[in-house]
Design a protein that fits this description.
Blueprint (H helix, E strand, L loop, with lengths): L1 E3 L23 H16 L4 E3 L10 H4 L18 H10 L8 E7 L6 E6 L2 E7 L7 H13 L2 H12 L26 H12 L7 E4 L14 E4 L4 E4 L10 H16 L3 E3 L2 E3 L3 H7 L5 H16 L2
Parallel strand pairs: 3-5, 6-8
Antiparallel strand pairs: 1-2, 4-5, 7-8, 9-10
Helix pairs in contact: 4-5, 6-7
């Protein structure tokens, strides 16, 4: 700050000092005006005392830092592989009958999007991962399908699957390791399969066969005597057929039916998926023991359901 002091009679000047480092309360225009007074005062012969300008404050340490890429804190992602299964199972349990358990497993199966095994004490459900985050109405349809095998729910789920085909992985998949049990107590599935493959399929059908898991004895409302897993190419035959009073021609007819699933593709008709299309049914009827096998099934179904 600059102050202009009038000279006294002896020519001395009275100077008001300020404490070093004290901040100025005046704005730059005021300092410019003071400089103008200095010039005009010097011209008139007055004493002019000038205080040094305050030093420019040093730059902050951050400004003096060399430019470098900012450091980023990276946290290791924690992935719980069972979180989705538990969440979806909890949502489905709302629709299960009291006392029924649910065993849920999410898969990346290429062919079977929903697989249900209904047991006396609950349900075993294999579900494609496309159902993660499904809206409530889809979860309700899943519940109805699992418990009641509801047709309307099946159509809703079919539409959902058709709209999420892009999620299905297309890369080749290794076949699962399955312990095959072909030799039963009374019937040998390997021998039956090889004979039918030579007689009816020119040895061209590539599949494996096994007896299914042994389940608890007791009366059943329905029975699935055979199944064909398209992705793994495995035929499973219900162990209830491994009995001395079940004729081999009937077991062979069930095996032949499942082998046809390995030959004929699923037929799509609008929103429906037809597993037994016209070509499938026509070839099944060419089996020599077709009529005899169907008649035996009708006559003995109650006995098979009873275990």
């Amino acid at each position: 700050m600059t102050r202009i002091l009038p000279a006294d009679q002896t020519g001395s000047a009275t100077v008001a000092t300020r404490t070093p480092g004290q901040l100025s309360l005046f704005s730059p225009p005021f300092r410019l005006a003071c400089r103008d007074r200095e010039q005009s005062g010097a011209a008139r012969g007055r004493a002019v005392v000038t205080f040094p300008e305050p030093a420019t404050p040093a730059a902050s340490r951050r400004a003096l830092r060399a430019e470098a890429a900012p450091r980023q804190a990276r946290l290791r992602a924690i992935v719980d592989p069972g979180a989705h299964e538990r969440a979806l199972a909890a949502a489905l349990r709302v629709y299960l009958p009291p006392g029924k358990a649910l065993e849920l497993r999410l898969t990346n199966n290429h062919y079977s999007m929903i697989s249900v095994r209904r047991k006396p004490d609950g349900y075993r459900l294999r579900l494609h991962r496309m159902f993660i985050g499904a809206e409530p109405r889809i979860v309700r349809a899943l519940g109805r399908y699992v418990v009641h095998n509801d047709r309307r729910a099946s159509r809703v789920l079919g539409d959902y699957i058709d709209g999420h085909q892009h999620i299905i992985k297309k890369q080749p998949r290794k076949a699962r390791q399955v312990n095959l049990r072909t030799t039963g107590i009374h019937h040998d599935l390997r021998a039956i399969f090889d004979r039918l493959n030579e007689e009816r399929f020119d040895r061209a059908l590539d599949a494996r066969i096994t007896w299914g898991p042994v389940v608890a004895h007791g009366a059943r409302r329905s029975i699935k005597m055979g199944s064909f897993a398209v992705e793994d190419k495995i035929i499973r035959i219900h162990p209830v057929l491994d009995k001395p009073d079940v004729p081999e021609f009937f077991v062979a007819w069930i095996v032949f039916h499942e082998m046809l699933h390995g030959k004929h593709d699923i037929v799509r008709k609008g929103r429906r998926r037809i597993f037994h299309g016209p070509a499938f049914v026509d070839e099944e009827r060419t089996y020599p023991d077709h009529q005899r096998a169907t008649e035996w099934e009708r006559a003995n179904l109650d006995r098979l359901l009873g275990g």
